[in-house]
Task: structure prediction
Amino acid sequence: MMAKPYIAIDGPAGAGKSTVARALAKKLGYIYIDTGAMYRAVTLMALREGIDLRDQDSLSQLARTVSIELLPDYDGGLKVLLNGDDVSGDIRSQQVSQNVSLVAMAPGVRKHLVELQRAMASRGGVVMEGRDIGTVVLPEAPVKIFLTASHQERARRRREELAAKGNIIAQEQMEKEIMIRDQIDSTRATDPLTQAADAIPIDSTSFSVNEVVGMIMARIPAVEERS
Ligand code: DC
Result:
């Protein structure tokens, strides 16, 4: 029997990757892997330990020593365990969001997390989302999506997510934060955010999650939808 394929979803912050990847994984009965959560977990640990975030050697050392586990949640999401503790909420804090791009620049951190990600995906049947999945982590993935949206729309979605948790942020500030992260993520020396040559670009600005999932489903060759 042919192994179930990998689906790689890349794109900038706030393009809707997590929501779409989660919905797609549920529809296909695949495992959902959020690689950003892994960079966030290392960032959280570095902040807790007071590590200088420009000290790439210390960050790499830290990434090799912490244990990061992603466990499927009851609602199709993921529970993130850092050294056994549930940090699913803590990794979404503004402090982590504002610093994670810096940590994700460290080549040693990336090398270790990419190895973990490949091991997690080794049996196939996964929807993996991030910034370098189609280019670096799973370059052989048969379906690669590059999901984008206008930066105003991405900021609006992020604000909505944060507002639901009681965290009110001005649109202007959110747009600025998103642009700074985009800039760091796409210009870093190691594995920058870039569209794979064979990725399908989808601009989600004016589409619903269901519509985007439908567009991706239409590009998956011969997979059976879970009934
Ligand atoms: O998707 P996210 O916002 O949770 O990602 C957090 C950060 O992690 C993002 O700013 C860049 C980094 N990241 C990365 O460099 N490579 C990945 N595969 C996933 C995320």
Observations:
- The beta strands are 6-10, 31-34, 68-72, 78-82, 85-86, 126-130, 143-148, 200-203.
- Residues 118 and 137 are 6 Å apart (CA to CA).
- The domain at 6-226 is CATH 3.40.50.300 (Rossmann fold).
- Residues 171-187 form the longest helix (17 residues).
